[in-house]
Amino acid sequence: MMTREQCLSVLHEHRGDDTVVVTTMGSAAPWSKLSDSSLDFPSVGSAMGHAADFAMGIALAQPDRQVWVLNGDGSMLMSLGTMVTICQTPAVNLVLFVLQNNTFEVTGNQPIPGANIISMVQMAKGAGFSQVHEFDSPDSLRTGLPAVLCQQGPIFINLPIEPGTEPAPKLPCSLSVPAAHLRTALQP
Questions:
Q1: CA–CA distance, 38 with 162 (Å, rounded to integer)
Q2: Is omega for the bond preceding 154 within 30 degrees of 0, making it cis?
Q3: Domain limits of the chain?
Q4: Any residues with CB less than 8 A from the CB of 68 and at least 6 apart, and which?
Q5: I need a surface site. Which of 22, 72, 124, 144 has the fewest CB within 10 A?
């Protein structure tokens, strides 16, 4: 298993220059320490559970860019229907990463419903994803990710990570500033 920092570091290594990255809750602040791209969008606060929906919309509107969403397992559970919706769209440029630590980390590390029982991989397959992968170490992620990112999406990648010992750092909850920056960056 890997830490959140190891996981995000490897993802950052493989991110393309024109890749849009939507982060949420526990991944937003750590990702912002790695990247200052204008194509990053931290979906935090009142948007909890909706990063994948937002990323799907961007993927549909920007078909020439790869769009990543770095979602938590708790956030994914809040909107499971999004996985089905993604599979019913032509969002072939969308990569949905789920960082699975089995906790609601940003609210105090409470266990998610079904912690250590549910399988995000099986849920993704059941929702209709044809490209479903799981990497459980920095080395397997580093070596396997390039080939996966060349596949036609939508792509689902589960990333088991160690739970944090303290609540994850939070970013300001206003989405207006990051939304304005992303809107400008996506202009032709």
A1: 29
A2: yes
A3: 4-186
A4: 11, 15, 19, 20, 21, 22, 55, 94, 95, 97
A5: 144
Please give the model's pTM, rounded to 2 decimal places. 0.87
Exposure b/e, 91-129, CB count within 10 A at least 16 = b: bebbbbbbbbbbbbbbeebeebeebeeeebbebbeebeb
For residue 6, the model assigns a pLDDT of 94
Q: In what order do the strands lie in the sheet with 67-72?
A: 40-43, 20-24, 67-72, 94-100, 155-160, 131-134
Tokens of 10: 């490897």
What pLDDT, in 10s, does the model give residues 103-122?
666 666 666 677 788 898 99
4-186 in CATH: which number? Answer: 3.40.50.970
